[in-house]
Amino acid sequence: MMQREELDPVQDIHYISTPGKQNACLVVMIDTRACMIDAIAQSIRSALGSRVLVVGRAEELTRATFDMESDSETLFVYCDGAISDQTKVDQDVRELRKAFPNSRLVLLTDRLEQLSLDTFHEHSLDGIIPSSYNTDQLVACIFAILSGVPYLPPTLLQQQISSQKSGKHRGKFNKKLTPRQLQIMKYIAIGKSNKYIAAELSLCESTVKVHVHEVMKRLGATSRTHASYILANDSGLD
């Protein structure tokens, strides 16, 4: 059984519009398990006000059969839980990206432990969401992605940071932060709470909150996860 990630996206993501109001975006859920995915789709409709379409197979979503008002206003959520062949998953995701290059594309996965950052970058994904997240967490992640904030779970976000930052080079965003702020962000990148960080660094929790708020302000980030993502992709920039 997959272990639940420490990060709680519901607490982490700062809503930048009002959930529950009609949203122009279309969310397309792709999964053969109709009963389960219908329940998730209803939660998305209720929470975000988005239109939600549920289909059984990626093959049904071709340009000839699927009429979209705007690619950029569509989010595809591909669920791999019912597919045992990873090659098939990769093929489906690749074909979706090829058919709808301007749409957002997310992988809702049962096999996070088998994935790496290569999956995220190879398919130009906008998010990888573990299926171990509860419905509220899933809705929060989807809202963030619809708002333009990519989502990676802590394990993959830490891979992103480790692979792109050698510690010898600080990009333009990293240079905006103090050593203490960067130290705090390393903990946030692996899903640690303000309370945990405060205990580890012998700080008051309120002090950590102030640092996190200042980091988000300096980076122009909408959430802690967004700030971590910005820093993870900052290595090598002038």
Key words describing this protein structure:
2 domains, alpha/beta, 10 helices, elongated, disordered N terminus, five-stranded parallel beta sheet, 238 residues, Arc Repressor Mutant, subunit A
Short summary:
This protein has 238 residues and is α/β, with parallel strands linked by helices. Helices cover 44% and strands 11% of the residues.
Q: What are the secondary-structure elements, in order, as H or E?
A: HEHEEHEHEHHHHHH
Estimated share of beta-strand residues: 5-15%
Quick one: CATH class of the largest domain?
Answer: Alpha Beta
Instruction: Give me the count of strands.
Output: 5
- Rounded to the nearest angstrom, the distance between the terminal CA atoms is 43 Å
Spell out the CATH superfamily of the largest domain.
Response regulator
The major pleated sheet works out as: 5 strands, parallel
Q: Which residue ranges are poorly predicted, with pLDDT under 50 across at least 5 consecutive positions?
A: 1-20
What is the CATH topology of the largest domain? Rossmann fold
Structural class by sheet pairing and helices: alpha/beta
User: How large, in whole angstroms, is the Cα Rg?
Assistant: 18 Å
Mean model confidence by pLDDT: 77
Strand order, main sheet: write it out. 2-1-3-4-5
Please give the CATH architecture of the largest domain: 3-Layer(aba) Sandwich
- Gross morphology is elongated
Number of domains: 2
Helix content: 40-55%
Continuous helix count:
10
